[in-house]
Design goal:
306 residues; alpha+beta; Rossmann fold; Tumour Suppressor Smad4; six-stranded antiparallel β-sheet; 8 helices; globular
């Protein structure tokens, strides 16, 4: 594909920046590209809308929202299993926008207009989560999947009112989770290595950031054919808070219970049905098999250096 002329934007209907989208972003985009907007009305609407859009001859499908909206759009597109998938894109209107940080996509007007006139289609890797002990359909993610504290933080965020902003809500959720989370033994099996131990957090990263700007995987690249695996074992609450501070500043953690490994597939198992989250969405329970699908889908992003 050499041009983008017809796009559909799937907008998170409860985005706090919806008015900004309609009043500023949409009119600007309509000057450079033909835009159809489909707004979500209920949970998982984005999955259904994206699935239908695959067969409607759009050049690109854009998610207007955060990482969760992008995740739903990705799943809607890939569940169609088409050989001619449209390009994905993102208008970052969410609270975290973590994948947007990795691919350098912003929400200011001029940037988004230029995205359709000076762009590249970068094939990116996608993670696939399968559930071998259940009939649950596979789930896909483009940024990060994690087990341990992460899914419990996500659950708290889903139930929070975010009165003082998304970053404050995240810190409240993570602090509460610190004192209620019970570490468990996780078994990781890959084609080249195995690891087992008590965990506070394990992240399988395709992108660099999660948790509203925490640089959990500084060297991760979404097109290198490998996951960067962040493993935080038996680390104290205080030490984990301190290491989170380093990660938020873009620094690698320094602790003998934290390590990084790489793989293109991993089996995650525990003695109990622990939850897993992907791109800020609760995805299911362990055991799971996570595999990397190399360069699975094109992603609309600026030309490097722009």
């Amino acid at each position: 594909m050499s041009d983008v002329k017809k796009v559909v934007i799937i907008l998170n209907g409860i985005s706090l920046r919806k008015n900004y989208f309609y009043s500023k972003i949409l009119p600007a985009l309509q000057t450079v590209v033909h835009v159809t907007v489909q707004e979500t009305r209920s949970k998982n609407d984005a999955v259904l809308l994206a699935s239908k859009a695959v067969s409607q001859s759009f050049d690109a499908i854009l998610a207007a929202g955060g990482d969760g909206t992008l995740n739903q759009v990705l799943n809607g597109v890939l569940h169609e299993q088409s050989n001619n998938l449209p390009v994905l894109g993102l208008v970052p209107l969410g609270s975290g926008n973590d994948f947007a940080r990795t691919v350098n996509v912003r929400s200011d007007i001029e940037f988004l207009k230029n995205l359709f006139t000076d762009f590249t289609f970068r094939p990116v890797d996608v993670g696939k989560i399968s559930f071998p002990d259940s009939k649950e359909p596979a789930r896909y993610f483009i940024n990060i999947a994690d087990v341990g504290m992460g899914p419990y933080v996500v659950q708290r965020l889903l139930n929070s009112d975010r009165l003082f902003g998304s970053l404050a809500a995240y810190y409240v959720a993570i602090i509460k989770t610190f004192f209620t989370y019970r570490p468990f033994v996780l078994k990781m099996t890959t084609p080249l290595w195995k690891w087992s131990g008590m965990i506070r957090s394990v992240a399988i990263a395709n992108g660099k950031f999660f948790g509203n700007g925490i640089g959990i995987a500084p060297v991760a690249k979404p097109d290198d054919g490998l996951f960067s695996c962040f493993i935080a074992g038996k680390i104290s609450v205080i030490d984990f808070i301190l290491q989170n501070g380093r990660l938020r500043k873009g620094k690698r953690p320094i602790h003998n219970e934290i390590q990084y490994r790489e793989t293109d597939s991993v089996m995650l198992e525990a003695d109990e049905a622990q939850p897993i989250e992907a791109d800020g969405e609760l995805a299911g329970n362990l055991p799971v098999r996570i595999e990397l699908l190399p360069k699975k889908i094109g992603f609309l992003m600026p030309v490097e250096g722009k």
